[in-house]
Design brief:
By secondary structure, the chain is α/β, with parallel strands linked by helices. It is built from 40 helices and 33 strands. The chain folds into 5 domains: about 425 residues, Up-down Bundle (Growth Hormone, Chain: A), CATH 1.20.1250.20; about 200 residues, Glycerol-3-phosphate (1)-acyltransferase, CATH 3.40.1130; about 190 residues, Rossmann fold (3-Layer(aba) Sandwich); about 80 residues, Roll (Luciferase, domain 3), CATH 2.30.38.10; about 110 residues, 2-Layer Sandwich (GMP Synthetase, Chain A, domain 3), CATH 3.30.300. α4 packs parallel to α6 and α10 packs parallel to α14. The radius of gyration is 39 Å and the shape is elongated.
Length: about 1200
């Protein structure tokens, strides 16, 4: 037989006794049926307590042998007899009550009881009117009969009307419906008693009872009406027969209860609660009147304080349970009851000398006594309902009620014995209650230490994190399962222990399990030690232990990375978990922990614990994925966990501060520190940057028509470019940074597509090139004088005084994450026509957060911004990242001007550089080591980074460039190698030369077979698809093209790649007909179209004259190659005419890049054989082996 502690380990969703409940029997807490049930409970308790506290003071006077003389023993006798009369029906009618709740619809039983209540109240007023004490006790007994029959139907209705996951909250609300009307009843009953018997008169008139009669009868009738709103659920056991032999049937119900030791102990706990509650309620009247010498009407105040405490405790228990049954609250509640009882005793004994202190102690003691009572009772009630089978739930609840009211009846006898026989003071009665609770608390802690520690851990984790849980329904209600989770902090296990709806056994390294400080705790939670360094036999034995636990129906959790991440990226999964799950028929449940990186328990910053948290109550997501049955590979499970990371980002994005809120807060944090600078000598501190952008924002709102959604920007990376971009975003405009290297025709195509009528630029830009664009130019030099003194005053006032959220609200901008469009970045499609990539506020915010996640960016970092803002990497990382994070940034307009770049790096102490291999070669030749002496993070993209170049750069400047990968459609970076010195690596690998790294946190990758479209495993080449919050919203006004590359959130890059078993991606080629030449995207098809116009048409047979492809190039990344049939014109003439079309020079193939062939390769379908064309080019120009 299991022990109770083993039962508690299966507490939250008990598998052995809880069959699936029919889905159509469940409603939400907001359903009409459940609200009606709550209202009936409210009115029943209100009437019960109003009538009781109307009767108590009146009956005490009628009961006294000597009119006008207060006798503690007589009052104790009357109160005890009244409680006994009310309680006895619960003992004798437990079985019939259970029968009614099972045999008939519980809603019908409730309605019948409410009708009976109306008749009973009429009899009660008759007894009061005739001053008939025996009849009054009979009415009290009848009230007990009604409540005895009502209680099982009421409690049994809860699991019929709400989901299991809402049981604790439902019981908390039901507890509240006990508390509020109980408190009101205390006050209302005493008030009505005062009206019925004013002064010291012992007589009661019919006229004086009229007000009480109207109030109480109205409540009774209203209760019956409301009961009609409870949904009629079919009877639990319509075939059961009436239990004519009450004692035998009650005994059988008790035997049924005792057959489950866990339910039996739970029921005894509930009985103990009722004993204490009854003692406290009886004792309040005598305690307030005798020890504290308060007037009778003031007793209601003390009673109200007590029951309000119970109500708050009930609600608190529901909240702290976190959607499951939390028995860890029970021992804490018991200890609290004991302490508060002692406090009340102290209040009674100090009353003579310190009346005010005694009163304050009494109020506090009674309130917290109620709070801890609620914490004690609600989890027990919820567990009883949760564990009981629906078919016998009525009998279980009836048996529990029998025990509960046995406790109440015992309370009546004990109360009379203590006050009337032993002649203890009421304060001493509280002391006896406290002393009697101590062994109960110790016993509960001994039985369920795991539950108590789980709750303490719950409090601990919620002190640091604001935790949200998703997908817990994916964990099976019964049977074994293996949770496979990423591993970020030391407290990951504690988080999963407290938030997983079923108890979890963890697999941990034996060194931790056997640690003297942790060994006892590991034993309580049955942690499975794994001896990684103990040899194969020890490892296999640990895996067998874990498998056996799953086979026995336990949920086991393993952190498959084998250690905490030091990079912030998910590490490779170890294959051991496949051996654990193999042959068990149990599912693997992928789990993702998000939001923990950067907390004091993570390794961010290169150390655990010894760092200040950047914010309190970090938002944390715990996601449980769809079960994976019989996983074949580690990659399958790791990919599922990675996808949960994508889902988590989507859930968090709307709850986090917006991009613009981050900008405002960062500027204020920077204060007088230089935040942005450029090679033109412009420098702005954080405060001045914020004021300047707010001032330009006011100006742009005046100068740019409100109906112009998209505004163009034709500026190089400078402070002016920063001000224009941010100010327009604050003004609610969509920015479009235009590529000033394109021809006028291409730029005008962008303007037309984006419906751009206004372009922000500068006189310096126009002096360098005479742009002929179909748009209105607004020059920064002309705009600056238009900023009035009032604009500057308003901007400064807002910058210094308004909270970020209020400032953004006044500007009409989002304060929280939003998918509102932020910018258009134009690129060229396969047709050569520009496509506007739509990037949202969330795209940028998520990308920036992911970059910060792995790069450890600090205030002493300086970004060297040489990438133009019309590139997604320049826009996201060199523009917005330093504006929303602590680093500062310094810009230069020409990335190939190595001399100036080196000078800026030396002057501002640049530590971070984003560049292309072409730029690095220029810096290698023209920059001195001293100029890059502080540089320690270099991220390279756009082209393949040759290993020789990376090593040469490291040799000269002391820092190894890290290759990354992304696209305009992914807001820039999606993959990156993490350098060792930025993540304080130990044995974990952050960089792998030749690859583009691992995905940024919150992003996912999959590789598809180019032919079948099916996902392939690791180390197999295929099409690269990316998914995450960084993926674009789509192409501007081009839904057809959007649907081609974006499906179910997956962006098809058109690139070929290989994902290895460590999660590193290697780009091997491109299927899409683009090339990156010198970092610029060159569309093959557009070049083809222009060449075809020059060479005119195909020959008589319709054969295609030429096709364009590309091959790797050591200097520029790639070179264009033209595969052609015999041409009628010289190559030089063709190239001359191609140059006259106005396309960029990078788009023009070299004269030595033409290959003559007999026929351009064509597939049987009539389409170009792209692979054949590329092979032809590689055979001529590819690298020599």
């Amino acid at each position: 037989m299991q022990t109770l502690s083993e039962a508690i380990s299966n507490l939250r969703t008990d598998e052995s006794t809880e069959p699936p409940r029919p889905a159509d029997l469940h409603d939400r807490l907001s359903s009409i049926s459940f609200i009606s049930l709550l209202a009936v409970q409210f009115l029943t308790v209100l009437n019960d307590h109003t009538f009781r506290w109307l009767v108590v003071p009146l009956a005490k006077r009628l009961f006294r042998h000597t009119p006008g003389k207060v006798s503690l023993a007589e009052d104790a006798s009357m109160l005890a007899l009244g409680l006994a009369a009310f309680t006895l029906p619960f003992l004798f009618l437990a079985a019939p009550a259970g029968y009614l709740a099972d045999r008939f619809s519980k809603a019908k039983v409730i309605t019948w009881c409410k009708l009976a209540e109306i008749l009973i109240m009429l009899a009660g007023f008759a007894a009061l009117g005739f001053s008939n004490i025996p009849l009054l006790f009979i009415v009290v007994a009848l009230t007990g009969v009604m409540n005895a029959l009502f209680a099982p139907a009421r409690q049994g209705s809860i699991p019929e009307l709400v989901h299991d996951g809402s049981l604790s909250r439902a019981n908390g609300l039901m507890g509240l419906m006990n508390v509020v009307p109980c408190a009101l009843g205390f006050l209302l009953g005493n008030l009505l008693a005062t009206l019925a018997q004013p002064g010291d008169s012992d007589s009661i008139s019919w006229q004086s009872l009229s007000t009480a009669f109207v109030v109480i009868m109205s409540i009774a009738v209203l209760g019956w009406v409301v009961s009609l709103g409870i949904r009629r659920v079919p009877a639990g056991d319509p075939e059961c027969r009436f239990p004519w032999n009450f004692p035998v049937d009650t005994w059988q119900s008790l035997k049924l209860l005792s057959s489950d030791v866990f339910l039996a102990r739970t029921a005894l706990g509930i009985a103990f609660f009722w004993l204490l509650a009854s003692m406290a309620q009886l004792n309040i009247d005598t305690f307030a009147g005798h020890d504290l010498q308060l007037k009778q009407w003031q007793v209601g105040v003390f009673g109200m304080v007590l029951v309000l405490g119970v109500g708050i405790g009930s609600l608190l228990a529901g909240y702290l349970s976190g959607g499951h049954v939390e028995l860890g609250l029970v021992p804490i509640g018991a200890m609290g009851i004991a302490i508060c009882s002692v406090v009340l005793y102290l209040a009674g004994i100090v009353n003579d000398d310190h009346r005010l202190i005694a009163f304050e102690l009494s109020v506090a003691g009674l309130f917290f006594l109620g709070v801890f009572a609620g914490l004690f009772d609600v989890p027990l009630e919820a567990y009883l309902q949760h564990r009981s089978e629906p078919k016998v739930l009525g009998k279980i609840l009836a048996a529990t009620n029998f025990l509960a009211f046995s406790g109440a009846l015992a309370a009546a006898g004990i109360f009379y014995f203590l006050l009337a026989i032993l002649q203890l003071s009421p304060a001493a009665v509280f002391l006896v209650c406290g002393i009697g609770t101590v062994p109960v608390a110790i016993y509960v802690m001994f039985l369920i230490p795991g539950a108590m520690f789980r709750f303490l851990f719950f409090i601990f984790t919620h002190s640091f994190y604001r935790i949200r849980r998703y997908g817990e329904v994916n964990i099976p209600e019964k049977g074994g399962a293996l949770l496979v989770s990423n591993h970020v902090t030391w407290v990951d296990g504690i988080l999963l222990m407290t938030m997983t709806p079923r108890p979890v056994r963890f697999i941990a390294y034996a060194d931790y399990v056997n640690n003297p400080w942790l060994k006892w705790l590991a034993r309580i939670f049955e942690v499975i030690p794994i001896k990684a360094d103990g040899g194969p036999k020890a490892l296999i034995e640990s895996l067998r232990t874990a498998r056996k636990a799953i086979e026995e129906g336990h949920v086991v959790c393993i952190f498959a990375e084998g250690g905490l991440t030091r990079t912030g990226q998910m590490q490779p999964f170890q294959p051991g978990f496949l051996k654990i799950i193999q042959g068990t028929n149990a599912p693997v449940i992928p789990v993702y922990l998000d939001g923990l990186w950067g907390s004091i328990f993570s390794f961010k910053g290169g150390k655990f614990f010894w760092k200040w948290p950047k914010r309190l109550l970090l938002p944390v997501n715990i996601l449980y994925g769809q079960p994976i049955h019989e996983p074949k590979t580690v990659h399958q499970v790791r990919s599922a966990v990675q996808l949960l990371g994508v889902e988590s980002v989507q859930k968090l994005k709307s709850k986090e501060p917006s991009l613009l809120a981050g900008f405002i807060k960062t500027c204020r944090s920077a204060g007088s520190r230089i935040k942005v600078a450029d090679s033109g000598g412009m420098e702005l501190t954080g405060t001045k940057l914020l004021i300047a952008t707010l001032a330009f924002n006011r100006l742009f709102r005046r100068e740019i028509p409100a109906d112009e959604q998209v505004v163009g920007i034709l500026l190089p990376p400078t402070v002016g470019g920063v001000l224009a971009n941010v100010a327009l975003s604050l003004a609610g405009k969509v920015t479009a940074n235009l590529n000033y290297t394109l021809s006028d025709a291409q730029l005008n195509a962008c303007l037309e597509q984006g419906d751009i009528k206004t372009v922000i630029t500068s006189r310096k830009v126009l002096e360098k090139r005479n742009f002929q664009l179909n748009a209105k130019f607004l020059l920064l030099e002309d705009l600056k004088p238009k900023i009035s003194s009032f604009d500057k005053f308003c901007a400064a006032l807002a910058a210094y005084t308004l909270p970020a959220s209020l400032l953004l609200t006044l500007l009409g901008r989002p304060t929280r994450g939003t998918d509102e469009l932020l910018t258009l970045i134009f690129t060229s499609g396969s047709t050569g026509q520009p496509k506007g990539v739509m990037l949202t506020h969330n795209n940028l915010k998520i990308t920036i957060d992911a970059a910060d996640h792995i790069a450890r960016l600090e205030a002493d970092d300086t970004v060297l911004g040489v990438l133009p803002f019309f590139h997604s990497l320049g826009y996201s990382i060199t523009l917005w990242l330093p504006l929303c994070l602590p680093p500062r940034v310094v810009y230069h307009v020409n990335p190939l001007d190595a001399r100036v770049v080196g000078q800026l790096a030396e002057k501002y102490g640049a530590t971070i550089l984003l560049a292309t291999p072409t730029f690095l070669r220029s810096y290698l030749k023209r920059c001195e080591p001293a100029q890059f002496s502080k540089l320690d993070l270099v991220v390279v993209g756009a082209e393949k980074l040759p290993n020789e170049l990376a090593n040469e750069f490291k040799e000269k400047f002391g820092v190894l460039p890290s290759e990354g990968y992304g696209a305009t459609e992914t807001t820039g970076p999606a993959f990156v190698n993490v350098p060792d010195h930025r993540c304080e690596l130990t044995s974990q690998k952050g960089t792998k030369l030749g690859t583009v790294g691992r995905p940024l946190p919150g992003f996912a990758v999959r590789i598809l077979d180019p032919e079948s479209g099916q996902e392939v495993g690791v180390n197999i080449q295929g099409r690269v698809q990316l998914k995450g919050g960084n993926v674009m919203a789509g192409y501007w006004k081009n839904p057809e093209k959007t649907s081609e590359v974006l499906q179910d959130g997956w962006y098809d890059t058109g690139d070929l790649g290989v994902l290895d078993d460590e999660g590193f991606l290697t780009i091997t080629g491109r299927l899409s007909r683009f090339s990156k030449v010198g970092g610029e995207m060159v569309p093959h098809l557009r070049v083809e179209e222009l060449l075809l116009e020059i060479v005119k048409t195909a020959d008589e047979e319709g054969a295609l004259p030429l096709a364009v492809t590309a091959v790797p190039d050591a200097q520029r990344g790639e070179r264009l190659v033209v595969v052609h049939r015999p041409l009628a014109q010289p190559v030089a003439e063709i190239l001359r005419k191609l140059g006259e079309t106005g396309i960029p020079n990078l788009w023009i193939p070299g004269s030595d890049s033409f290959i003559e062939v007999e026929a351009v390769p064509i597939l049987g379908t009539g389409k170009l054989d792209l692979k054949g064309i590329k092979d032809c080019a590689l055979a001529r120009f590819g690298p020599k082996s």
